[in-house]
User: What shape does this take?
Amino acid sequence: MAVDPEYPYLPACFELEEALREQLSNRPGHQRCVVGEHELLLVVHEVPKPGVPERDPVFFWHPADGAWIDAAGKEGLRELTRLLKRFEVAIDGLEESLDVASTAAEVFGLARAAGPLARTARNLAQAIEQARVHDDDNRDLIACRDRAREIERASYQLNHESRLTLEFWQAEQSEAQRESARGLNRIAFRLNLLAGFFLPLVALGALFGMNVKLPDFTKGLFWGIFAGGLLMGGVLLWFVGRGVDDGRRDDED
Assistant: This one.
C-alpha cells in the first residue's frame, strides 16, 4: 500500500476515514487524539533528543470495526507501551547523571534536556487521556494513561530538581565570592590601618630628614619626635577604628 502524498507522514497501512483526514494538515502537529465520526487517530511524539527542536511522531489508529493499530500494522498498544518505557529509561538516565554531576555546565546541560522531556511527557499524558475518553472500556489504554501520568510527574520532578540544583550552585558560588571579598576587604583595612599608624612618623621623618641645616637643639629631640610621631599615629588609628565600629553598629541596627 502506497503512502498518501498528501499526508506523507502517515503509515501506509492506515486507511483513515475522510472525517479524520479533514482535521489533518501536511505536518503531524502536536500530540493529540484526533476524533472522527467512527475512528480515532492518536498522535504522540518520541522521546525528545537534546538540542533537536523537531519531534518524531508516532501514530496509532483505531478503526471503527477493530482494535488499535500501530504504524507497523500490528494490532494492540504494545508499541505505545514501548514508547512509555523509553521515556522512563530517559528519565532514569538523566536522574543518575544529575546525582553524579560535579560542574555547573553538566547541570545546565541536564536542565536543558529535562525541560523538553517534561513538556513532551505532559502532552503525551494529555493525548492518551483524550483517547481514553473516547475508548473508555479499553483496559490497555487505561493502563497506558496511568503510566503516562507517572512519567509526567517524574519528568516534572526531574526538571524541577535540575533547575533547583543549578540555582543552588549559583547561590553557593555567590556566597563564596562574597566571603572572599569580605576577607580581602579585611586584609586591605588592616594594611590601611598599619599605613595610617606610621604615616605621621614617616611625615616627620621626611620633614626633619631633609637636606637642610637644622638648629642644633633639634638633635636632642630625636626620641621625642619619634615618640610624638607614634603617638599621633596611635591617635589617628583610634579615630579611624572608632568610626568603623560605629558604622558596623549602624549596619547591624
Notes: The radius of gyration is 38 Å.
